[in-house]
Design goal:
Belongs to the peptidase C40 family. One of its GO terms (molecular function) is cysteine-type peptidase activity. InterPro entries: NLP_P60_dom, Papain-like_cys_pep_sf, Peptidase_C40. With 300 residues, the chain is α+β, with helices and mostly antiparallel strands. It folds into 3 domains: 98 residues, SH3 Domains (SH3 type barrels), CATH 2.30.30; 55 residues, SH3 type barrels (Roll); 121 residues, Alpha-Beta Complex (endopeptidase fold (from Nostoc punctiforme)). Helices cover 14% and strands 33% of the residues. The chain has a 6-stranded antiparallel sheet. A hairpin with a 2-residue loop joins β4 and β5.
């Protein structure tokens, strides 16, 4: 076993160490925009149908490498909990997207990117990468009023302080309302199976990413997210609570999670081929499939 960190802006974590030819662009370190731009809706649907993509890991996320085969690393993503694998969420990452260079231990504060994307800059101001929402980096120095110096697998870089703050006033908002306000910025973003980055989300990845931005770490998948948190009665739901849904009018397997947005509305990443959207709970079949409501944040 060897510890590494993700040095790609976002690394896809694949089910198997083989990909389609059209997925080759996803192996670049600079980001996933070129890959996604050439995928049709049917191509993205196939990611779920064939269970090709299992999750994503963000820049600087720690992983444990089990072994490497033909340029692919079998890894566990440490920050994504999975009850079957105590080391982290399992899958395959293209090994060139990982850095095994040891980093100095930083015991100070960590910043989290709270915008869809923000540049990671070199000392001279040149852009190294576009960092995704949820990226977490240890701070080396915060003396500059505009930028934090941060430690990364690519060396010390700079991140704008405004990008690690919410782009709206939060003083009067609960943490749940803050997540809804942040989630609104991704309306009409295409669903991405396995996604938890600014490039696209699946339903549980959307919940995971928004909670990460308020300092709460969820399990990665719906089946495990439902096991944690504080149960909430339907009549007591507040914005930011997670609503879980099961097949067969609530009697079957869990299949979806959405954020309660208030006044009977949900905010969610629905299914492959669809976009992040609002949905009125009472006007959809999901109203008969709601089985659990959980809250993972607390008011101060």
């Amino acid at each position: 076993m060897q510890t590494a960190r993700v040095q790609a802006a976002v690394a896809n974590v694949w089910q198997r160490p083989q990909i389609r030819s059209l997925d080759t662009l996803a192996l670049q370190n600079a980001g996933l925009a070129p890959w996604l731009a050439q995928l049709s809706d049917s191509d993205t649907i196939a990611l779920e149908r064939d269970n090709r993509l299992v999750t994503q890991a963000l820049f600087n996320d720690p992983v444990v490498i089990d072994h490497v085969v033909d340029g692919w690393a079998a890894v566990y993503v440490v920050s994504q909990r999975d009850v079957r694998h105590p080391q982290g969420y399992p899958g395959w990452i293209w090994a060139a997207q990982l850095s095994t260079i040891p980093l100095p231990v930083i015991t100070g504060p960590t910043v989290t990117v709270r915008r869809a994307f923000t540049p990671l800059l070199q000392a001279d101001g040149r852009t190294l990468l576009q960092l995704s929402i949820g990226t977490q980096l240890p701070v080396v120095s915060s003396k500059d009023p505009r930028y934090d110096l941060v430690q990364t697998p690519l060396g010390v870089g700079k991140v704008a302080k405004r990008a690690t703050q919410f782009g709206f006033e939060t003083a009067t908002l609960t943490p749940g309302q803050t997540m809804i306000k942040l989630g609104e910025s991704f309306l009409d973003l295409r669903y991405l199976w396995g996604g938890l980055s600014g490039y696209g989300f699946d339903c549980s990845g959307f919940a995971y990413a928004l909670h990460r931005c308020i300092g709460v770490t969820l399990a990665r998948d719906v089946s495990e997210q439902v096991l944690d948190g504080q149960p909430v009665a339907v009549d007591d739901m507040q914005p930011g609570d997670l609503c879980f849904f099961a097949h067969e009018q609530g009697q079957g397997a869990l299949h979806h999670v959405a954020l309660y947005a208030g006044d009977g509305w949900l905010l969610h990443a629905p299914t492959p081929g669809k976009m992040v959207t609002y949905l009125q709970l009472s006007a959809t079949y999901l109203k008969d499939e709601l089985v659990q409501v959980k809250r993972y944040w607390q008011t101060e």
